[in-house]
Automatic annotation (TrEMBL):
The lineage of its organism: Bacteria, Pseudomonadati, Bacteroidota, Cytophagia, Cytophagales. Residues 155-230 form the PA domain. Keywords: Signal. InterPro entries: PA_dom_sf (IPR046450), PA_domain (IPR003137), Peptidase_M28 (IPR007484), Peptidase_M28B (IPR039373), TFR-like_dimer_dom (IPR007365), TFR-like_dimer_dom_sf (IPR036757). Gene3D superfamilies: 3.50.30.30, Transferrin receptor-like, dimerisation domain, Zn peptidases. It comes from Hymenobacter jeongseonensis. This is M28 family peptidase.
């Protein structure tokens, strides 16, 4: 599901550096959060046995088998893969079931794109099979190139090029006197999640939207195209969902509740998360004649792509006809749930998940992550046979329907919401992965815990810890802030979670601590969501030896084993406090910078400086005047952050001075720890999207996958809704205070009992 551009994660996700650590049980083990010295020694010995069980041949064989046919939602091979995995889990000793939800999954019935002026052209809308790719010719089973949850439509209009189609691009068009009302827009992939493009286009009055992959970003501008090289060929196109997931993910017909067989459903024509205009993805081969036929002003330099044409904006004289019709069917999605019951705290669940559905054959996305999860489960099953038992319940999940909009995981979470909030300790997610550098994002209460995991895993290319290698990357390639953190901060920051994979319902709707982990940055490719995401492509360009699939299994296996085995759950709150304080500083600086820029622009407008520098032979209007930025009252947030720092310090001190707790107090403490994240939820949710309840992390309303931290405050400021910003400061502060109170309760339980 997620964007396959690891540079974003590699500059945002920072992990602890530590000296290289051989994967054998050390004589003097490094400390582990949640373990005393003796338990840490036993844990390291267990992890050595776990590592010894991992086999790359299994990873390769399972990927080849599961990627042998297309396995989208509703496909025969999708169901076959679910049954296959369920059989594996059962053979390894897990209690296994397949839970079924019934979700809306539209597929194309008719796709037509043609240019009717100034010259006729009909788009092929077909990816070319390649002799060098064994599965690319399975045309009878492949979904055609389309954007899932586009509405039906039959529209004809002049074409306008809108760059990436994000709000700031329309501001540039308005300055050039170009209005897209009543037009069809063509946008490049990139710059935001794809679903934002038709959303903003419709808000601006467009009646249709085309999205293409420009070769500068995703094609021969990056390197040789497939099959000679890894990158997107001329006919390649990116399928994908355009469901308005920043409003809510999951089945659009059952908002906020599970899509069981007999659930009450909305009429799909009234579902709020479907697009308001028809939208279609096309290849750069199909896009070139359309773009070449545009006239009007030249696009700004930064907008121009890699096609051998001048990039004009339009509108026209290119006029296009777009006609789309879909089969609006409900389909079953098959979530595989495999459980190993805990011996001491069976009511505490550690969840580990990855999705198994794909747009086509899906070797990289999602199977590179799915086979790692399977191998973790198999290796842990082997440990179980030796007599080892987890203290807590371990649950492996293979989700269906992630690609169209987190359908399987969201509906399962909504169906089981109360039980999950009561029992789940943490949710650990992966998706696709490849050669390269560690990236990790998640709840910052797990930051120190995950730093210790990364400290103890070895990078297969460099023979150093995956954290050391990541630190080196940030020191060389990070922005100044990332470089400073990598040099100075003992625990480097993990990134915050936006959207784009199956963690979203667990953290952002239910308040369950979550992580999303993978590797990337060296596995080249333009295969994303195309017929070329195949076993052949993966084994040539992504991770030929499956070394990083194995390292992903080592990393996530350690995380799962430490969570299920810890004497006390390894949550830590000082890093969280530090991170949220950083977010507070950022939103204040954002407000100050906006005020400065607004005042500067107002002065330039009053002095008519924009008119003075405008070329009289071109249209470039002055920017619109903006309302002055008021001074907001951040005192409630500042006071809440101070209480958070105090409670975090109190808990750290309590754990440091008292390492001996009875089992009853451990159980009480654990529950306070893993349910603390739920205190960050707001019953009202975020403005205009109440499904998203977390007050610290959410996907951006106009970024999609990209995270907004302190989202209620930040987006109100960005959208210049000052009364709303004041209200969101109070609401966020209240959530932080509730969280701080929970941490204080945990500190009291963890502290030494008072003397009698």
């Amino acid at each position: 599901m997620k964007l396959k551009r690891y540079a974003y994660f590699l500059t945002a996700s920072l992990l602890l550096s530590a000296p290289a650590f051989a994967q054998t049980a050390p004589a003097e083990p490094k400390p582990l959060l949640g373990f005393d010295a003796a338990a840490a020694t036993a844990q390291y010995q267990l992890e050595t046995k776990f590592d010894a069980q991992l086999k790359t041949d299994n990873l390769r064989d399972w990927m080849k088998r599961m990627a042998s046919r297309p396995h989208h939602v509703g496909s025969p091979h999708g169901k076959d893969n679910a049954d296959f995995m369920a059989g594996l889990f059962k053979s390894w000793g897990y209690e296994t079931r397949i839970d079924v939800s019934y979700v809306l999954f539209p597929t194309p019935k008719l796709r037509l794109l043609e240019m009717v002026a100034p010259t006729p052209f009909k788009a092929g809308l077909t990816e070319k099979p390649l002799a060098e790719d064994a599965t690319s010719g399975q045309t009878a089973e492949q979904l055609p190139t389309y954007n899932c949850f586009s509405k039906d439509g039959d529209v004809t209009a002049e074409l306008v090029f809108v760059n990436y189609g994000v709000p700031r691009d329309y501001e540039e068009l308005e300055r050039r006197g170009i209005d897209v009302k009543g037009k069809i827009v063509i946008a490049k992939y990139g710059g935001s999640w794809r679903g934002i493009k038709p959303k903003v286009a419709a808000e601006k009055g467009a009646i249709g939207c085309l999205i293409y992959s420009d070769p500068k970003d995703d094609g021969y501008g990056q390197g040789d195209v497939y099959p000679k090289g890894a990158f997107k060929p001329e006919t390649g196109a990116q399928r994908g969902s355009v469901l308005d997931m920043p409003t809510y993910p999951g089945d659009p017909l059952t908002p906020g509740y599970g899509s069981t067989k007999n659930a009450k459903r909305l009429d799909y024509k009234k579902a709020p998360t479907l697009t308001q205009i028809p939208v279609l993805p096309i290849s750069y081969g199909d896009a070139q004649p359309l773009l070449a036929a545009l006239a009007g002003p030249m696009a700004p330099d930064a907008w121009r792509g890699g096609l051998p044409i001048p990039y004009h904006l339009g509108p026209g004289p290119a006029k296009v006809h777009l006609k789309l019709e879909f089969n609006w069917k409900n389909e079953p999605v098959y979530n595989v749930i495999a459980t190993m019951k805990g011996s001491l705290y069976p009511e505490q669940w550690v969840m580990r998940g990855n999705h198994h559905d794909a747009w086509v054959n899906g070797a990289s996305d999602p199977l590179s992550g799915m086979v790692a999860e399977l191998e973790e489960a198999r290796a842990i099953g082997e440990l179980y046979k030796t007599g080892w038992r987890p203290k807590r319940t371990l649950m492996f999940c293979a989700w269906d329907g992630e690609e169209p909009g987190l359908l399987g995981s969201t509906e399962w979470a909504e169906t089981n919401a109360k039980q999950l909030q009561k029992n789940v300790v943490a949710y650990l997610n992966t998706d696709n992965s490849e050669r390269g550098f560690l990236f990790a994002a998640g709840s910052h209460t797990l930051e120190k815990f995950f730093n210790q995991v990364g400290r103890d895993v070895i990078d297969p290319e460099k023979n150093m810890s995956i954290n050391d290698r990541r630190r080196a990357f940030d020191l060389i390639n990070g922005n100044p802030e990332a470089q400073k953190d990598a040099r100075d901060r003992a625990d480097l920051r993990i990134a915050a979670l936006g959207a784009g994979s199956d963690y979203s319902p667990y953290i952002q709707h239910l308040g369950i601590p979550s992580m999303n982990v993978g590797f990337g940055g060296e596995g080249e490719g333009g295969e994303y969501h195309s017929i070329y995401d195949s076993f052949d492509h993966f084994t040539r360009f992504k991770d030929p030896n499956f070394a990083y699939c194995k390292v992903l299994a080592q990393t996530m296996g350690r995380a799962s084993l430490r969570l299920v085995n810890a004497d006390v759950l390894p949550f830590e709150f000082q890093n969280f406090s530090n991170t949220v304080a950083k977010y507070g500083t950022e939103v204040k600086l954002l407000t100050d910078n906006m005020r400065t820029e607004t005042d500067k622009q107002a002065k330039l407008l009053a002095e008519k400086r924009y008119e003075a520098v405008a070329d009289p032979t071109e249209t470039l209007l002055p920017p619109k005047a903006r309302e002055a930025v008021p001074y907001l009252n951040f005192a409630p947030l500042d006071n809440a952050l101070l209480k958070l720092e105090q409670s975090a310090n109190a808990y750290a001190q309590a754990r440091k001075t008292n390492t001996s707790l009875s089992n009853d107090r451990k159980k009480e403490l654990d529950q306070l720890l893993y349910q603390a994240e739920q205190q960050l939820l707001s019953a009202e949710g975020l403005p205009r999207r109440p499904w998203y309840r977390h007050q610290i992390y959410a996907p951006g309303f106009y970024t999609g996958y990209g995270v907004k931290t302190l989202p209620g405050i930040r987006e109100a400021v960005e959208e210049r809704k000052w009364a709303e910003a004041d209200e969101q400061i109070k609401r966020t502060a209240a959530a932080v205070e509730r969280f701080s109170a929970q941490v204080s309760r945990a500190a009291a339980v963890a502290a030494p009992a008072p003397a009698q």
